[in-house]
Amino acid sequence: MAFIKVESEELKIEEVFRVKQEETEEQTGLMTVKEESEALNETDEKYKLEKHYEFITEENPFTCSQAEKNHFTCQQCEKSFNLKVILIRHMRTHTGEKPYTCQQCGNSFNLYGNLKIHMRVHTGENPFTCQWCGKSFTQKVSLNRHMRTHTGEKPFTCRQCGNGFNQKIHLISHMRTHNRETELQSALKS
Fold it and tell me: What is the number of other CB atoms lying within 10 angstroms of the CB of residue 119?
């Protein structure tokens, strides 16, 4: 019986597998360190390229010679993209493809960035910390939402009564009270 230690510096996860001596790497599904490193680097490079393309395509005044070369159109919904990589990512909304799988729990994601965020569940990493109370979060969007509890900001306003809410879900829940009132009034009139 041999022990194989698998470490991923990128994700800061360590696993130890017990493997019978006669089992090969092919049978265990493990990659050599070089193969794993190459696979992670390739995935990371694709992620960096996706991020770069997102930046240059979101109404930024910067241009990229690669982005201006072609025009790609989705055959299912006719939406157009400057870059093939963005079209490929968009196609996942139609196909449901989730090519990035968590090795810890098996959850799959359509974007590599979402897998990286998910991995924080396993590592316990909370890189975004509230400067007011010290509470920390796995995502910046969660910290921003939390900050509204300190600032009192209520960006979501009810069109019917003018009440403000710090989260969209709270506004949606509030809107149901108006719908119930309308239903009740209709029932009383009948």
Answer: 20
